[in-house]
Amino acid sequence: MADQYDLNQPIYQVGESTLSFSDMLGYFINPEYKRGNLSRISDMHVKTGRPVSFRIDDDLTPIPGGIGVTDEVLRYMLGILLNEKHLRIVTDEDDPQDVDTAFEWKEHQVNFRLNVFRDRDGLAFVMRVLASNIPTIQEVGLPSDKIWQDITALKRGLVLVTGVTGSGKSTTISALVNHINLYRKTRIITLEDPVEFLFKSETSMVSQRQVGQDVSSFSGGLRSALRENPDVIFVGEIRDTETASLALSAAETGHLVFSTLHTRDAKGALSRIVDMFPAEQTKSLCLQLSFSLSFVLSQKLVPRADGNGRILAMEVLKNVPALGNLIRTGNWQQVYSTMETQSKEGMMTMEQHLLHLYQHGVITKESAITYTNEASLIERLQ
């Protein structure tokens, strides 16, 4: 941060008041926007000509009374957030480029992931708060204790957590991995882009590596990790064929691997992995996946009926023998019905969990219908 830019300088008009950038960051730690230890605010969005806005419980909400941000004010904010090199890059009129970086609010020890870019109206940026404390599994709110107990007891296998951006995938995995960190004597290596939760080595020994800083890519970091005698590996995201192949091989050869995918349901995660590879490899991939996969958790964050934040709705696929047979043959059509009838094995469809939350008054009927993957849920709620 350059000396001429002051975090506490009033710069942004809101009603009769003028807020400093520090005042705006204060929304992230305001108790009014917290549920337990978890913030209901995930992001701050700033762009030329629009009021400063926050993503609260998944809704993008402008600061009440805030005016459109001027180019001058936005550049002042960037002067606070960026070093001189990055500030030069994004403000270069001839060849402006996006910047992905991080920002630490040192006064309150809060870290943010920052993306700065240009659109047709001018400069813009998005800041995502990175939680300072890893939530417990109980705070995350998995559907049952059996799920997390089974996962954290695994010695090998692949555990995938899927969902759209902002659905809390990294939070769920971090809670699971930290439980292992607290209670098992293991070697844990994480590969993240960026590092979101800071682990402290407890009973386990933890090494966190950031893509682009400590390793060049997820695949390169994973290849390196396999030579570092890990028990548990957390790969931030499976983005390409090489990473998928290495993750499957690692799980098959005795490592517990956690990773994420952007799919709307558990069944889609299976086909996504297989579809990454050439068609001639489908049969061998299905066979390998049937042996390597342990769990798929597909999740959404659904508004609570009382308006107090969001709650986790989760679909759980467990690789029991009946599912393994379907995976080996690539019979994705029967995966959903098998999950629906195997609740005694710990499996649960998204529809079953949404229906449970609705029947217990946690979410509304409208939310259950909105967040379902299958229209059949609507019929059950009539």
Describe the structure.
With 382 residues, this protein is an alpha/beta fold. It folds into 2 domains: 10-130, Beta-Lactamase (2-Layer Sandwich); 137-381, Rossmann fold (3-Layer(aba) Sandwich), CATH 3.40.50.300. It contains 15 helices and 17 strands. The protein has helices at residues 21-25, 71-81, 84-91, 137-140, 145-152, 169-183, 218-225, 241-252, 266-275, 282-292, 321-329, 335-341, 350-359, 365-371, 376-381, and strands at residues 10-14, 17-20, 34-35, 38-39, 41-47, 53-56, 59-62, 99-105, 110-119, 122-130, 157-162, 187-192, 205-210, 232-235, 256-261, 293-303, 310-318. The strands form 4 sheets. The protein has a 7-stranded mixed sheet with strand order 13-12-14-15-11-16-17, with helices on both faces. It has a 6-stranded antiparallel sheet with strand order 7-6-5-10-9-8, with helices on one face. Strands 1-2 form a two-stranded antiparallel ribbon. β1 (10-14) and β2 (17-20) form a beta hairpin. α7 packs parallel to α8. It is globular and about 65 Å long.
SSE blueprint and pairings:
Layout: E1 10-14, E2 17-20, H1 21-25, E3 34-35, E4 38-39, E5 41-47, E6 53-56, E7 59-62, H2 71-81, H3 84-91, E8 99-105, E9 110-119, E10 122-130, H4 137-140, H5 145-152, E11 157-162, H6 169-183, E12 187-192, E13 205-210, H7 218-225, E14 232-235, H8 241-252, E15 256-261, H9 266-275, H10 282-292, E16 293-303, E17 310-318, H11 321-329, H12 335-341, H13 350-359, H14 365-371, H15 376-381
